[in-house]
Design a protein that fits this description.
Radius of gyration: 22 Å
Distance between the termini: 34 Å
Order of helices and strands: HEHEHEHHEEHHEHHHHHEHEEEHHHEHHH
Shape: globular
CATH superfamily of the largest domain: Periplasmic binding protein-like II
Organism: Paenibacillus albiflavus
Number of domains: 2
Number of helices: 19
Oligomer: single chain
Protein name: Extracellular solute-binding protein
InterPro entries: Bact_solute-bd_prot1, SBP
Pfam families: SBP_bac_1
Largest sheet: 6 strands, mixed
Keywords: Signal
């Protein structure tokens, strides 16, 4: 029985979803793993180890943790960020060992559910501050038992960033529909300007790009709901058409885009060698740090018809949980109460230019403010992430790898759709 349980745990862990300012280091913010916890006269010294896949957020977390420690000086928090593409494996090894980790950043939706269902996380339903977060957002950190196991920290939008000056200087209007996007891209390419800085080396970036252009092709939320109810599936002609459109769009990607990293694609956009870049709203912080020499703007999505409002893709992009094996449950829980507070949410949003799911937090960045307004008006999910992150490998991963295979000439759009549906058939149960 024990052996069976361990096997189940390993399978669940292996099915985790792959997603895709400087300050001095306070004396008891342990980002290197070397300083010892600070002793105080009022409380026992405790060290919490906190895992994340956001290595670029280290400086901001140092500030946030330092703020928390003003009232909890006996607690040392070692923020240990890892490369996003390596995080799942590192997390799996630590949780399997049952030591060395207290607080962990959860992949959203099925990624969180897999760990919760493996009895690796502490339930948080009674956590003070959860009422600051809507049930819709808390759903991204629930187990199959309906309990909450994480505190969501960030909302993300998949969008098309564009260089406002570059388009204007070339007499081009901002595209609103698929046809207009193709025409603008053709015009840019004719002038030897790379239309879209796209990386294809990490396949998850391909599904994010697909998620931006696809909704207007397959019918937005009406199609999403039909798939979830079992009224249609991924072999639907409309979904196949969205895959074909993605393939067509690749004609406007950089040369050898399958081999380049996302950082290379960002560099092309930052240095104005490319006019557009498709990714998540979290990249605003990347561009702020780069001090862009041009005016940045974004296209929220593509409208099915000229003049219609496009849907903007949105999802909860991670939460923080407590490892059930942690020997410091009370201290970890207290820190998560802080994470659920408006104070944390506003600091997080201000320091990192991110959208917080905590009620009452307003982003200061004008582009983020506009995204928040558009999300409230007309949103659609990052479909593969929010609903198809299960399976081994996950259906999301199968879709991403199939997209990559298609771009390498190994699969047709129809075969991508069929392969994806075959994966879903192994585990997905429609909700009638």
């Amino acid at each position: 029985m024990k052996k069976k349980k361990l096997v189940t745990m390993a399978v669940a862990l292996s099915s985790l979803v792959l997603a895709s300012a400087c300050s001095s280091n306070p004396s008891n913010v342990d980002t290197q793993g070397t300083p010892a916890p600070a002793e105080t006269a009022t409380g026992e010294a405790v060290k919490l180890v906190m895992y994340s896949w956001k290595a670029e957020d280290k400086a901001a977390y140092e500030k946030i943790i330092a703020e928390y420690q003003k009232e909890h000086s006996n607690v040392t928090i070692e923020f240990k960020p890892y490369k996003s593409t390596e995080y799942n494996t590192i997390l799996k090894n630590s949780l399997t060992a049952g030591s060395g980790i207290d607080i962990l950043q959860l992949r959203p939706y099925d990624g969180a559910r897999a760990l919760a269902d493996s009895n690796l996380l502490t339930p948080l339903d009674d956590l003070e501050g959860l009422s600051n977060i809507t049930p819709e957002h808390l759903a991204a950190a629930k187990g199959s038992d309906g309990k909450v196991y994480g505190v969501p920290i960030m909302l993300n939008n998949a969008i098309i960033f564009y260089n406002k000056n570059l388009l204007a200087d070339n007499g081009l209007e901002v595209p609103q529909t698929w046809d207009e996007l193709v025409k603008v891209s053709e015009a840019l390419k004719a002038k030897n300007i790379t239309p879209i800085a796209q990386s294809g080396k990490a396949s998850y970036l391909l599904s994010m790009t697909h998620s931006v252009i696809a909704p207007s092709q397959y019918g937005n939320n009406a199609f999403v709901n039909a798939v979830l109810k079992g009224d249609t599936n991924f072999k639907d002609a409309k979904f196949i058409d969205s895959i074909q459109k993605f393939k067509d769009l690749s004609a406007f990607f950089p040369k050898d885009y399958i081999a380049i990293e996302d950082a290379d694609a960002q560099a092309m956009f930052i240095t104005q060698k490319a006019a557009m870049y498709i990714n998540g709203s979290h990249r605003i912080e990347t561009f702020e740090k780069a001090k862009l020499p041009f005016e940045l703007d974004f296209i929220p999505g593509l409208a099915a018809q000229k003049g219609e409002d496009p849907s903007i893709v949105s999802w909860v992009d991670g939460s923080y949980a407590i490892a059930k094996s942690s020997k410091h449950q009370a201290e970890a829980k207290k820190f998560l109460e802080f994470i659920a507070s408006p104070k944390f949410g506003q600091m997080y949003s201000d320091e990192l230019n991110r959208v917080s799911p905590i009620k009452g937090v307003t982003p200061n960045h004008p582009l983020l403010k506009r995204m928040t307004e558009l999300t409230a008006k007309n949103t659609t999910p990052y479909f593969m992430l929010t609903h198809f992150g299960s399976g081994n490998p996950t259906t999301k991963t199968t879709f991403e790898d199939s997209l990559q295979g298609m771009l390498l000439g190994k699969l047709t759009p129809e075969e991508v759709a069929s392969t994806t549906q075959d994966s879903a058939d192994k585990w997905f149960k429609p909700k009638k």
